[in-house]
């Protein structure tokens, strides 16, 4: 069975790349894949505890971090755009800031999808330097999700 | 963007503050205050009878303006919007300092002393208003979330801490600053450079990236999150590396803030020893202040030592930034686009340290207390100088001293005690110094030492301006730390992990353990 409109959540971790491959396999020809990438909300609180620096240093850091996060998001979008464009599917990106599970729910409320695809959580003791501790697959998501969801297995 | 939110929250907080003041002023709160002080005079009576009135009026007036007034974009809107968050922190600090911490003390005392430590649970665990305030801040931020109307003002806590450090400058004597400064330069120099070096070395052995090693070494070595923020752009750290580093530092810092005071009490450390240890061993500078106040909640001697170490750390920061910038350029093999030393030093220089130095300079002119005063205190044994007649020794106390005078070795010490017995109070500053020496040597019985200590305290008075400074400093730090607690998120701490957590754990532990050994072996009770 193939799907015409898929929402794919990916921020480039090993689990997310597995989800990308799965989405490509089950996307119908000329189907659409919307790529959701979330900048987690914890970044907002990352510098809260810094009080010794002056405003110049803090602004410099904030601008630097914002630029770096933006660059990473752009890189991921470009990479996935190329990957999806190489198949017969169409790519579009959705960039959000906030809690990953809530961002995903918000997308499914705004737009109707045939399927939502995401990677499975990273197994314990498996290091992945791209990964942050910001779960998308929460209990809240599972109970509130109204669209069919496919969780790609984590690559061994 | 308009920052001020049309909410009644500030007005309600103002009314709550006024209700507290009214209750204290009219005696309505007396049964509660008597219960909280276990029958003794309630120690915060002066504060509770004045502070909620002043701040309550400000909160009610600005609260009405916030709720009902028209707001327009601009500087006035931005700065006025911070009042709500600031008042929220202040109200939480008031409630914890005046009601919650004393309640915990009552419960803890009911449990009785713990083993042969001679201390109650709240003393051992450091459960005082500072620690409870930080915990309250963390709980509010992570369980209830900081309300939108308070978000802007919560950042004011930084200003509170910096102002507290500036005011502290007025309390040091030149000799103290010289000795503490020298000690901190040696300790911080050794441990900061040592930790930065160890992190870089372990990092290269474990093949972590140069940017990760650079940002982690600064965070672990110098002053935690502040150093990470300063160094990250210089070593071009990736966001995930910044997240791991800050997560590790926060987790360690919060852990140390609770663990250090407990260890300090168990080892019976002096204020100087604990201040030096916390100032060196705790990774994050905010938690250094928190631990110092948690160790000594009703005084600022420990904080004074710890803050000198904090200031030394932050002064070293530009040097570390330069070092890591050069190191990074070399390791990456890129041609330097030119590291502007002057620019780095100017942009990273902590301006508030100039305020601290200015306050110290002003205090040396005798502006806050006459030059004859030592550490803001002066000798006075007449009612006009502040001596209270009820502090004269009674016959039982003079008999006790009389019985033990034979055990005093030095003649001048014996003479001082004889004069004390004869007059019922210490007569001269020289006698006072001799009595202090007897107390320190501890050769007499506990009862006699207690009598001598009381006699010494009776003739030492704190200058009024200095006393006011002490009060303000305590409040500014308490305010700042509650606010900082409200900015520590569990989701940030959860980012601790991977190689940075392992390296950070090893270096953090080595630094804390080694600095403890150095402090216990080499630093005395005073400097």
What's the short story on this structure?
The complex is a heterodimer of chains A (156) and B (527). By secondary structure, chain A is α/β, with parallel strands linked by helices.
Distance between termini of chain A?
Answer: 26 Å
Name the helicity range of chain B: over 70%
Spans of chain A of at least 5 consecutive residues whose pLDDT stays below 50 are none
Overall pLDDT of chain B: 88
Largest sheet of chain A: 5 strands, parallel
Strand content of chain A: 25-35%
Number of helices of chain A: 4
Beta strand count of chain B: 2
Total tally of structural domains of chain B: 3
- Named at the architecture level, the CATH assignment of chain A is 3-Layer(aba) Sandwich
Could you say which structural class the secondary elements and strand pairing of chain B correspond to? Answer: mainly alpha
Radius of gyration of chain B: 25 Å
CATH H-tier superfamily of chain A: HUPs
Uncertain runs of chain B are none
Helix and strand succession of chain A? Answer: EHEHEHEHE
Biggest sheet strand order of chain B reads 1-2
Organism (chain A): Nitrosomonas marina
Protein name (chain A): Nucleotide-binding universal stress protein, UspA family
Keywords (chain B): Cell membrane, Membrane, Transmembrane, Transmembrane helix
GO cellular component, one term (chain B): plasma membrane
């Amino acid at each position: 069975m193939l799907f015409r409109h898929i929402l794919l959540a990916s921020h480039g971790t090993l689990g997310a790349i597995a989800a990308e491959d799965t989405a490509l396999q089950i996307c119908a020809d000329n189907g659409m894949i919307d790529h959701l990438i979330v900048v987690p909300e914890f970044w907002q609180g990352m510098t809260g505890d810094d009080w010794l620096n002056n405003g110049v240093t803090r602004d410099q850091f904030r601008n630097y971090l914002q630029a770096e996060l933006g660059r990473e998001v752009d890189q991921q979008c470009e990479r996935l755009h190329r990957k999806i464009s190489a198949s017969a599917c169409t790519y579009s990106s959705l960039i959000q800031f906030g809690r990953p599970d809530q961002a995903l729910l918000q997308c499914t409320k705004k737009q109707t999808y045939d399927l939502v695809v995401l990677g499975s959580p990273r197994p314990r003791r498996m290091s992945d330097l791209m990964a942050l501790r910001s779960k998308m697959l929460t209990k809240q998501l599972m109970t509130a999700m109204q669209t069919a969801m496919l969780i790609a297995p984590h690559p061994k | 963007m308009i920052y001020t939110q049309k909410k009644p929250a500030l007005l309600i907080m103002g009314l709550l503050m006024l209700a507290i003041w009214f209750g204290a002023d009219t005696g309505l709160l007396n049964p509660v205050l008597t219960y909280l002080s276990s029958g003794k005079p309630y120690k915060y009576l002066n504060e509770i009878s004045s502070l909620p009135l002043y701040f309550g009026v400000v909160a009610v007036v600005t609260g009405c303006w916030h709720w009902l007034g028209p707001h327009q974009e601009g500087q006035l809107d931005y700065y006025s919007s911070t009042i709500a968050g600031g008042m929220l922190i202040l109200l939480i600090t008031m409630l914890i300092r005046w009601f919650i911490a004393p309640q915990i003390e009552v419960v803890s005392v009911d449990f009785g002393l713990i083993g042969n430590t001679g201390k109650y649970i709240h003393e051992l665990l450091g459960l005082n208003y500072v620690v409870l305030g930080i915990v309250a801040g963390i709980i509010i931020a992570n369980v209830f979330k900081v309300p939108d109307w308070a978000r802007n003002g919560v950042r004011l806590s930084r200003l509170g801490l910096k102002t507290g450090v500036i005011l502290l400058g007025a309390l040091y004597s030149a000799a103290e600053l010289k000795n503490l400064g020298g000690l901190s330069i040696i300790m911080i120099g050794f441990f900061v450079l040592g930790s930065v070096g160890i992190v870089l070395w372990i990092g290269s052995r474990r093949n972590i990236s140069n940017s990760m090693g650079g940002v982690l070494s600064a965070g672990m070595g110098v002053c935690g999150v502040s150093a990470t923020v300063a160094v990250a752009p210089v070593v071009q750290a990736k966001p995930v590396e910044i997240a791991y580093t800050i997560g590790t530092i926060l987790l360690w810092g919060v852990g140390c803030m609770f663990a250090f005071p407990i260890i300090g009490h168990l080892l019976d450390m002096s204020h100087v020893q604990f201040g030096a240890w916390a100032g060196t061993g705790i990774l994050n500078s905010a938690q250094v202040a928190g631990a110092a106040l948690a160790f000594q909640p009703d005084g600022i001697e420990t904080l004074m030592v710890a803050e000198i170490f904090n200031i030394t750390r932050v002064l070293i920061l530009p040097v570390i930034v330069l070092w890591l910038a050069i190191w990074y350029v070399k390791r990456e093999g890129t041609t330097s686009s030119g590291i502007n030393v002057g620019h780095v030093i100017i942009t990273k220089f902590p301006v508030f340290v100039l305020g601290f130095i200015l306050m110290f300079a002003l205090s040396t002119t005798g502006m806050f207390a006459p030059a004859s005063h030592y550490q803001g205190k002066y000798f006075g044994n007449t009612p006009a100088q502040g001596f209270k007649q009820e502090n004269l020794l009674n016959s039982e106390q003079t008999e006790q001293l009389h019985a033990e005078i034979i055990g005093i070795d030095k003649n001048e010490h014996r003479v001082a005690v004889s004069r004390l017995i004869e007059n019922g109070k210490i007569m001269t500053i020289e006698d006072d110094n001799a009595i202090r020496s007897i107390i320190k040597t501890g050769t007499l019985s506990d009862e006699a030492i207690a009598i001598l200590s009381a006699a010494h305290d009776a003739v030492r008075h704190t200058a009024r301006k200095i006393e006011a400074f002490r009060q303000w400093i305590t409040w500014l730090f308490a305010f700042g730390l509650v606010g900082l607690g409200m900015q520590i998120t569990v989701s940030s701490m959860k980012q601790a992990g991977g190689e940075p957590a392992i390296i950070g754990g090893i270096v953090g532990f080595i630094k804390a353990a080694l600095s403890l050994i150095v402090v216990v072996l080499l630093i005395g009770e005073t400097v």
